[in-house]
Amino acid sequence: MIKNISNLGDAAIYCDFGTEVNETINSEVIKYFNYLSDVTEERKIEGITNLTPSYNKLIISFDLGITNYSNIKKKIENLKIEDSKKQSSKKVKIPVCCDDKYGLDFKRLSEKLSLPKEEILKLYLDKEYFCYMTGFIAGMPFLGDLDQNIRCDRLETPRVKVSKGSVGITEQFANIYTFESPGGWNIIGSTPKKIFKKENINDPVLIKPGDKVIFYEITNEEYLNWNE
Amino acid sequence: MSEVYLEILRPGINTTAQDCGRKHLYHIGITVSGAMDLRNHMLANALVTNKTEEASIEFAYQGPLLKLKNGMINFAITGDVAFNIVRKNSMVEEGKCYQNYILESDDQLDIISTKKSVYGYLSVSGGFKFEKTWNSFSVNTKANVGPNNGKKYSIGEKIFIKSYENLKIKERKINYINPVNNLIRVLKGTNFNYFSNDSQNKFFKDEYLITNLTDRMGMRLKGSILENIKSTNIKSEGLIKGVVQVPADGNPIILLNDHGTIGGYPKIGVVISADLDRVAQLPPGTSIKFKEVTLVEAENLFKNYLSETNKYLNAIN
After folding, report:
1. Which of B20, B22, B24, B27 to mutate to test the interface with A (most CBs of A within 10 A)?
2. Among A33, A38, B140, B188, fewest CB within 10 Å belongs to which?
């Protein structure tokens, strides 16, 4: 449920679902997001230009030339949320090579967590993750939750460039850098799989909020010969 | 017949195709992009009888040097821009913004620079020959989406132009003066209470300097350090253009068209929609001041902005 609605500037509405980060709250956000996507597509509410779901917030941007905050707020408050027609959570398998040339931060992690690389890797691979949100850069998934024993802060000084395909962990989350980007996550490997494909006009992003993700290890040879 | 195109002899600093932006994709990490100064983008199109949704070429600081091949075009430039038309017989005409000109085959258009501003716009009658991606012509260099493979233009590349048969081109011009005002109006952000009383006061009282770390993604400011008394990180959440976020170092950043779609820095304020064009045009080195307004005031100021934009658009048509 939305706990509080306020304005973010004059052209967006800020729906607060709580302060915690967990699957229950996030699933509520995703449910609202999916339903509002349908509503927007069907033009049942005029003027919505963007919907941004995150861990526990949903931001609805609108065209101030068409509508305004109090209009949209009223409509959101009166919504009867139903399951979206196209809502379908899927399971995605992501190959990842964790050789030292890709897993740049194992040394740092081993020291901080007092765990050998093999143990970190085992705990990381032995889990099904939930996609909380997608964004920052195109298609980047924010996945949770990491095993309690391998949670670690960001790098003190973020890297200016993290290469495309890098797989990172920080706090309770795992992610994948879909493009080269600055970033401060602990890098433990790289995937050759394309997560964002602009050629797929109707469905460019492989991992969407609500999806489940499993990582499995591949060798450097498999990585280099990966063919999609 | 050969296609009409502009050849890039000098690309300029940040020359890209833009339009009114890309919608409905924040949730997969695709930001809005689009013209940094929407009104000037729209005016450029109107001056050459295009729809305002047509693509324009946006440039920043130093603009491109372009040579026309295989035909004739009717073009206009908007913004606060110095440019010359170099005719094929080497005659140089000094160009004026906010009026249309004819360029003939082998003539050159030398967009020297923007003056006391950052962005300028070039439109041609009929429009550029671009394909839309997700319903927009805008270049997003982060995801390499949009015309020219989602990249800035480089030397030697060609910008193709749609054929345009209307030979009865009329002279069109307006008197438009770009508003210069360093007072930026904002609404309080969702994390305003993360900052100390003293910092809240300073945010609205002190001057902030626009630093060189400014681009289409955002504008980094320097001034009184904003002291966070609660937490320098929030759980990552959606962002929008105009958000003023404050990282741990206490220096505010105004997010602009190519901002990341989610982020975890507290939001002290949000620039009102009516002031977004104006903010984007302020060059590094400018001192700005923030002024708080209410939501109702912001909404009314946007109505004024729209009606003023329409007034100029109508003056052209």
Report:
1. B27
2. A38
